């Protein structure tokens, strides 16, 4: 009996405590502004019954919040009218909620937020403030971020709102007149990666749009209709943006946060970005000055008049109204305090409110204080050392010089390839290596030719063509040719040096010479390495599009730094190898011909070849050393020159070896002249030139020869070449 008594008392106390806690909670909720929260709920339909069942009184609810409702798929929007005090509507994490019917009039509603849910289209909010009781018909925030929205129905957003966010959805296109007669201060499409098309009239009819965010989308251009009043434009992380409107189209723009450096050049040089509109602007300014001058003369005449004249102060102002806002419907007229910043409820989520004191922006010019100044737009990213607001070549002398280098490099290396490949009778290792070297230098000439053509076509306004060039196929090809030719040239010169080192240092050991088969295998490896290094930027390691000269000079991450360091390291190893080999060559030839058993003529011939090759490699080293030095300093994080001055090294000095190589190792040698004359003799034309060459190279007659007999019996050029080659071999003369 006693045990039952204690159990009964304990149960009563527990029930009392539970009832008291529940009543206290309800009182707290009702007294604190009636916040109705349904968290981790299993409701499938949101209606008045479900809210009432949760323990809330509909007439007292001001803020309705639903978080994590995995089964919610329908909202009875008519029941929202049973909450006359409703100010905010918030739903998060409702994946099955795909559509919301058109909302009824809700006079006090200020925020409508449905995020990270399953919406596939924008709900119709155009009737939210149709009620006659609504004295301030506007919404502070509409946030539909993180849904699956693919389309914007017509007139769905014909509203008055401070901030509309459609971020992180699946919108592919903004149709024409999607925001007609809507009064929206800030509009954001950030993170719609599939958004690739904005209709020319996508923003036509929108009123008071001050901020627009199209970051992380796939658009290629911006329409200008409806953006006349835009003050802040954000198109960051949008690499597809090709064209930026003129500053004269966005006449109120003060801030622009873009993706490409060269787009900011359009705001810095409006006269070059859009010359026609700049001329119209100058005509308007000139007309304004003339009107101000006439007004001043009129005022002076009035002062001289005997009768006092009362002047209206407003007569001194020239006002130009924006006709684009005159189409505002009366049903969307609003008061000056409509976008009052005091009504902001969530400063962390939404930007500060934009002042809107008038629906029609005006331009007033006071003739007494008229100051004509250039428009300044705060634009990012600002043109930097890699992307300055200049042409591809930059300087006029560099523009002329690059054409001279192109002509010399292309013509010289083509001539070498033509002659060496035509001499099929002698397939020696030096000839094979020289063909590879000539081809690599020819690629350098083609790279410079592409840069020179682009510079000529975009002279003065390159930033208007920068996107099509830097992010097009042309720049990728040019960059590939540049890196490929540089790597193959250095590799081939290294092999040429090693071959000469073997041939000269171990002249008496014929078995130690590099065979043609071995040379072919070595050059295949060189080609594969060069193609790999040139192809990595195409695969995402570094980038050819970082600058107008299409070189992988920008280091954004560790992978880019490793790639650029590998380029410099391989070149440095190659040049060290070349220098060491030539030191050994000169040391081995230092004794004249004693080391060759008295074959002084052979030693002298080898020394002449070594001297020529030293000149060849030394020229390349002089061209490469400055580029390597400034490249290493830039890679170390302390660049000493910018791209404007670096172009002199990269476009002028560095490619000079492509011009010097064909003349040093081929065109200026006797062997090349013999091969060239043989090629002419095979054609059967210009026989007079062939005969003149044979006479010039025929040894003078001696006492043991019959001059009269020899004059009429000249050997054919081919037989003559064979005899000269045999004599050269006997004398130890090595040719290229």
Automatic annotation (TrEMBL):
One matching Pfam family: 7tm_1
Transmembrane segments: 397-421, 433-454, 488-510, 522-542, 562-585, 614-636, 648-668
Renumbered residue ranges of the record's region Disordered: 296-322
Source taxon at top rank: Eukaryota
Chief subcellular location: membrane
Protein keywords: Cell membrane, G-protein coupled receptor, Leucine-rich repeat, Membrane, Receptor, Repeat, Signal, Transducer, Transmembrane, Transmembrane helix
Keyword Ion transport: no
Signal peptide: 1-24
GO biological process per UniProt: adenylate cyclase-activating G protein-coupled receptor signaling pathway; hormone-mediated signaling pathway
G-protein coupled receptors family 1 profile domain location: 412-665
Gene Ontology CC entries for this record: plasma membrane
Cell compartments where the protein resides: Cell membrane
Membrane topology listed for this record: Multi-pass membrane protein
Gene Ontology MF: a single term: protein-hormone receptor activity
InterPro entries in UniProt: GPCR_Rhodpsn, GPCR_Rhodpsn_7TM, Gphrmn_rcpt_fam, LRR_dom_sf
Stated family: Belongs to the G-protein coupled receptor 1 family.
Name this protein carries in UniProt: G-protein coupled receptors family 1 profile domain-containing protein
Lineage of source species: Eukaryota, Metazoa, Ecdysozoa, Arthropoda, Hexapoda
């Amino acid at each position: 009996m006693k045990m039952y008594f204690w159990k009964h008392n304990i149960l009563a106390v527990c029930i009392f405590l539970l009832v008291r806690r529940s009543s206290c909670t309800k009182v707290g909720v009702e007294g604190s502004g009636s916040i109705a929260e349904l968290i981790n709920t299993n409701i499938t339909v949101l209606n008045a019954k479900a809210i009432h069942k949760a323990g809330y009184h509909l007439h007292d609810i001001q803020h309705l919040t639903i978080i994590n409702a995995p089964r919610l798929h329908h909202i009875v929007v008519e029941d929202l009218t049973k909450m006359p005090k409703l100010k905010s509507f918030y739903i998060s994490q409702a994946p099955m909620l795909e559509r919301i019917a058109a909302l009824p009039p809700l006079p006090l509603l200020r925020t409508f937020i449905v995020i990270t849910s399953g919406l596939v289209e924008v709900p119709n909010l155009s009737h939210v403030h149709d009620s006659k009781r609504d004295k301030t018909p506007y919404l502070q925030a509409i946030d539909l971020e993180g849904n699956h929205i693919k389309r914007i129905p017509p007139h769905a957003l014909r509203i008055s709102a401070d901030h509309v966010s459609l971020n992180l959805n699946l919108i592919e296109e903004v149709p024409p007149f999607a925001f007609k007669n809507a009064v929206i201060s800030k509009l954001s499409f950030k993170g719609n990666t599939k958004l690739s098309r904005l209709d020319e009239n996508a923003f036509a009819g929108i009123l008071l749009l001050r901020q627009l965010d199209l970051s992380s989308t796939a658009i290629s251009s911006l329409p200008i209709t409806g953006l006349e009043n835009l003050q802040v434009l954000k198109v960051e992380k949008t690499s597809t943006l090709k064209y930026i409107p003129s500053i004269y189209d966005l006449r109120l723009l003060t801030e622009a946060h873009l993706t490409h450096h060269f787009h900011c050049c359009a705001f810095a040089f409006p006269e070059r970005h859009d010359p026609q509109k700049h001329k119209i602007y100058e005509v308007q300014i000139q007309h304004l000055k003339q009107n101000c001058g006439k007004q001043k003369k009129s005022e002076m005449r009035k002062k001289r008049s005997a009768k006092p004249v009362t002047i209206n102060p407003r007569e001194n102002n020239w006002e130009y109204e924006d006709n684009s806002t005159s189409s505002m419907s009366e049903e969307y007229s609003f008061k000056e305090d409509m976008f009052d910043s005091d009504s902001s409820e969530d400063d962390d989520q939404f930007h500060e409110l934009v002042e809107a004191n008038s629906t029609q922006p005006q331009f007033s010019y006071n003739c007494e204080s008229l100051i004509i100044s250039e428009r300044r737009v705060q634009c990012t990213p600002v043109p930097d050392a890699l992307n300055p607001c200049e042409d591809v070549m930059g300087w006029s002398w560099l523009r002329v010089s690059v054409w001279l280098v192109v002509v010399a490099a292309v013509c010289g290396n083509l001539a070498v390839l033509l002659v060496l490949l035509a001499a099929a009778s002698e397939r020696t290792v030096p000839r094979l290596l020289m063909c590879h070297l000539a081809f690599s230098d020819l690629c350098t000439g083609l790279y410079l030719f592409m840069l020179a053509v682009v510079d000529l076509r975009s002279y003065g306004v390159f930033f208007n063509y920068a996107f099509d060039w830097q992010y097009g196929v042309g720049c990728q090809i040019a960059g590939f040719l540049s890196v490929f030719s540089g790597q193959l040239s250095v590799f081939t010169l290294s092999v040429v040096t090693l071959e000469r080192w073997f041939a000269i240092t171990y002249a008496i050991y014929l078995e130690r010479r590099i065979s043609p088969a071995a040379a072919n295998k070595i050059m295949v490896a060189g080609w594969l390495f060069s193609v790999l290094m040139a192809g990595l930027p195409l695969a995402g390691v570094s980038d050819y599009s970082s600058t107008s000269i299409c070189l992988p000079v920008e280091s954004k991450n560790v992978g880019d730094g490793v790639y650029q360091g590998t380029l410099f390291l391989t070149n440095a190893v190659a040049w060290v190898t070349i220098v060491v080999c030539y030191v050994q060559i000169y040391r081995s030839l230092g004794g004249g011909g004693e080391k060759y058993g008295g074959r002084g003529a052979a030693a002298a011939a080898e020394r002449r070849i070594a001297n020529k090759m030293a000149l060849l490699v030394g020229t390349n080293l002089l061209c490469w050393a400055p580029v390597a030095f400034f490249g290493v300093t830039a890679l170390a994080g302390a660049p000493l020159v910018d791209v404007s001055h670096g172009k002199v090294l990269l476009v002028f000095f560095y490619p000079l070896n492509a011009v010097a190589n064909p003349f040093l190792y081929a065109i200026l040698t006797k062997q090349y002249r013999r091969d060239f004359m043989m090629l002419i003799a095979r054609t059967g034309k210009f026989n007079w030139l062939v005969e003149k060459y044979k006479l010039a190279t025929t040894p003078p007659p001696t006492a043991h020869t019959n001059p009269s007999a020899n004059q009429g019996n000249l050997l054919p050029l081919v037989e003559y070449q064979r005899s000269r080659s045999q004599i050269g071999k006997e004398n130890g003369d090595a040719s290229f």
